[in-house]
Model the fold of this input.
Amino acid sequence: RSLEDDLRHALASNQFQLHYQPIIDLASKDVIGFEALLRWDHPARGMVAPQDFISIAEEIGLIVPIGAWVLQQACHQAMLWPDPMKIAVNLSPAQFRDSGLFETVIRALASSQLPPQRLELEITESVMLLDSATNLRTLHQLRALGVQISLDDFGTGFSSLSYLRTFPLTKIKIDRSFIRDLGKNPGCLAIVRAILRLACDLGMRTTAEGIETDSQLETLRFEGCSEGQGYLFGRPVPADQTTLFLAGQR
Ligand code: G
Ligand code: G
Ligand code: MN
Ligand code: NA
Done:
């Protein structure tokens, strides 16, 4: 059977799991939340990575029910962490093409009782480029609830900077390609500085993705980046291991 056929049965067969990667406040080094990352435990192939199935799920419309499951699961998990620990959930542009996205978020918040301020939705630049009027309205509705909106993988897409002003974003996540070469390539430092300055002046928080070394961490703290994520702090782990990150503090 094809991966596509298997994907159609994966949700009902409970083959999806969420892993959680810690997000750190760079000033205090406290864990302030986690990003939920989808995993598919395929009965024959083992763990299938998101890049190998998300695009298929998008093409055949399955990302809508899968995305709804992710939101439910992530919000319920976040309720097991101390308030105000946050949960970040990735949204695919295809979920915006479905008119039920706002209702889906409302349902996940209502059934979990998670305060909306503790939910961060990660969107990519393509959400601002395509159907931007409709998506802008949906994002304003979500912001009005108190839900936070992060722009993921920033710097790699094709959007214009003017979207940063028009869209109700609360955070910019700097793509890990800029962090990787921070110490080697002076151009990367220049770009990271410019993004941090821009985000600060627009009143947004910043997360640096893919921090792997102490030297990257120190540079980003010095430059005023608010939050960080990466293997230096922790890899994505199953839900039951998130408490280990939290036990270490307070
Ligand atoms: O851990 P990593 O390989 O998990 O994730 C790879 C990519 O898959 C990330 O860029 C992320 O945006 C995407 N991704 C992970 N989980 C989800 C999810 O629940 N929904 C969507 N739409 N994308 C996800
Ligand atoms: O695009 P998004 O940021 O949502 O994807 C997160 C992806 O980045 C996941 O695949 C996750 O496993 C990966 N990731 C997280 N931290 C690091 C890191 O420090 N180094 C590298 N190479 N990948 C990372
Ligand atoms: Mn992300
Ligand atoms: Na990213």
Summary: The chain has a mean pLDDT of 96. The longest strand covers residues 31-42.
